Structure formats: structure tokens, C-alpha cells
Amino acid sequence: VMEKAIENSLVWVSYDEELPQPILDDKEGPIRYSNPEAQQRQPYFGEPSTIWTAMEIREGDGGRLKYSPGYRDLTPEQRKEYLDWLTTKDKDGKWGYVFLYYNGLERHLLIGDMDRAVEEILALRETFPWQHKLLDVSEYAIINCCFARQRKDLLLKLFDEGSFRGISLLQMTISYESDINLGAEDLLNIFYKLYPEARTALHHDRDR
What is the rounded distance in angstroms from the CA atom of residue 29 to the CA atom of residue 12? Predict the structure, then answer.
């Protein structure tokens, strides 16, 4: 299942046999790990979603997930569940697994395979259209990374395809700086967000 999950997904993977060791202390918060110096120079270092192939996986009920877990924080049963979900990426996956995968895709937007990361993120948005947090976070992440990596071509393509739900004030600024034309529906969306008191009128009149 691990091989299929890696093949069918855009994930960060470590094939190292030496696993990072948790640092035990009395402080509350995320688990910290000590890593060999060689691992610290790898692009997967510090990425919570990195799949460590040497870590145990086991059949069984994974139970309830901790809030925002990393792959190393999962139990062997949860790792098996996560890898199983990666082979399908269907809407029945636990939300913690969805965002764990998304976290790795964000890193790809910045320093990895950006085009494929965008494809994977758009697919997640189609699978989970009711998850507004995913829709909002991914929209801004893609836009900002397009500018950070000078991918105006990709940004224009996404706007032309209507990949995003609507245009925000930030996107209006981006469109101005990038000479991207806004349509009437986009301008109405901006006005709708900037002037809440006018929403009732807009709701009744926007189709006239």
C-alpha cells in the first residue's frame, strides 16, 4: 500500500533507515525531533507530511486523530489508514489526513513540483467543496506562490479556467499589478465583500 500511495500522490518521502527520535521534555506543544545532520539538509526535513518508509504501519482502527498531526505523530494504524486514503483521496477520508497531505502540497508550491501540486490541490477542492478552510487557504497559497516563483502564466491560466470561487480584495490588487482583466461577476464579488451593508441589494439585483 505504501508504494501505491507514493506513486499515486505528490508526497515528500524519506527512505532513510535511521528515524528521527522524539525529544522528550515537560513542555506542552508539538512533538520535537532530533535529526541527523545529513537529514537536516534534505528538502523533506521539517515537513510534517513526509512519509518515513521505515516507520511501522499496521492494520486496525486508527481511532481519533490528534489535532493537525504529522506523519511521524500517527500511530501505526493511522499511518496505514492515511496511506490507504492516499491511494483514492476520496471524500470519506478523515479531515486530518486531508490537511496532512495538503501541507506537503504547499511545500511543493514553494520549492517543489508546482504544476502538479496545483493539480492535486484543485482536485482536493473539487472533492471537498464544503471545506471552506481548504478553499480559502489553498486559493491564497496558490496565488502567492505564483508570484513568488514568477509563474504569471499559471496564474492567468487559473483565472481563465475559473478555478477559484471568487475574487477578493487581494486578488483585485494582484489583477491590477498583473494586468488581469476582471469581469462583472468578479467586481460584484469584490463589492459584496467590501460593503456588507449592501449585500441585500446586491443579492436581489446582481442578475438584472
Answer: 24
Q: C-alpha grid cell for residue 45? A: 526535513
Instruction: Give me the phi and psi of 159, to 5 degrees please.
Output: -65, -45
β-strand 21-23 against 13-14: which pairing, if any? unpaired
- Supply the pTM of this predicted model: 0.75
Listed in sequence order, the DSSP H helices in 87-113 are: 95-111
Residue 151 grid cell: 509563474
Q: Are strands 51-52 and 13-14 parallel, antiparallel or unpaired?
A: parallel
**C-alpha cell, 104:** 506537503
Write the pLDDT tens digit of every residue in 136-168: 899 889 988 888 888 878 887 887 787 875 556
**Residues near 67 by beta carbon (within 8 Å), at least 6 away in sequence:** 96
Under a CB-based contact definition with an 8 Å cutoff, are residues 88 and 51 in contact? no
pLDDT in tens, 175-201: 666 665 656 666 566 555 555 555 555
Q: How far is CA 127 from the centre of its chain?
A: 13
Residue 162 φ/ψ, nearest 5 degrees: 65, 40
- Quote the CA–CA distance of 121 and 102 in Å, as a whole number: 7
